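Title: Prediction job returns without error message
Component: structure pipeline
Severity: low
Priority: P3
Assignee: unassigned

Description:
Job completed but the reporter wants confirmation the result is attached to the right record. Sequence as submitted:
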Amino acid sequence: MTAAGAGEAGDVRAALVRLRRTTGLPVAFGGLTDTPPAATPHLRIAELSGTGTHVLRGLGIRLGNGLGGKALALARPCAVTDYSSSRHISHEYDAAVEAEGLRSVLAVPLVVRRRVRGLLYGALRTAQPLGDRALAAAVAAARDVEQALVVRDEARALVAAARDTAAGPGPAAWERVREAHGALRALAARTCDPALRHELLAVCATLTSAGDSPVVALTPRELDVLTCVALGTTNATAAERLGLRPETVKAYLRSAMRKLGVHTRWEAVVAARRAGLLP
């Protein structure tokens, strides 16, 4: 599994834990689609939480089949009170569901830019209605995964663009690398997921030459602000991009300039590039 794939799997695992905690449902499971954007969605259940067996792991969910397949097809949450006797779904997966002892089940699709990217399930081992509160909590857990997938998609596109242009000659190619670096740091600053933030900052580091022991040590926020300055943004724009107040941006910038031993914004950018802190 690639690092990106492992990160996305971690996003799903975290969402399943949250789903169980916030809904009170004892069992949760799910996975991401393994099909390209233009293809028919096909999903394999890869993550389990609270299950008593491994019978559901690796189960392939096809469009329209079972509760999950119905959620894939409709791109909206679906639920049944008693899976094995429900007349509202097909029953290709009854054997696996019964082996795990599941009765009431809900399925929430993960939808990113109008494309279904995965499913989260929650389940009870008794047949009773799943109320609106449980469904709303499951949807909230799905929204967290969707947000993380958006950030990862943007990061992958930016990294690909940066690496494609890094080997190209001329200042225009380097400007595209610098723009990608700035956008990645802005994404990292906005995400609430510490693991994802660490991954994004690690990618940013590959676009610079400072390595693990830079000559000048700037804090992450000082470097965030300096990255924005390097792209020509105003303090107000940098504040909006990073989720800070303009006065806070000014304070970080002054601190970075002091550490770099310079007196102007542009001198700070030049010094940071010479130190390998910026591409």
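Comment from assignee: result matches the submitted record. Strands lie at 27-32, 42-44, 47-49, 60-62, 78-80, 105-112, 115-123.
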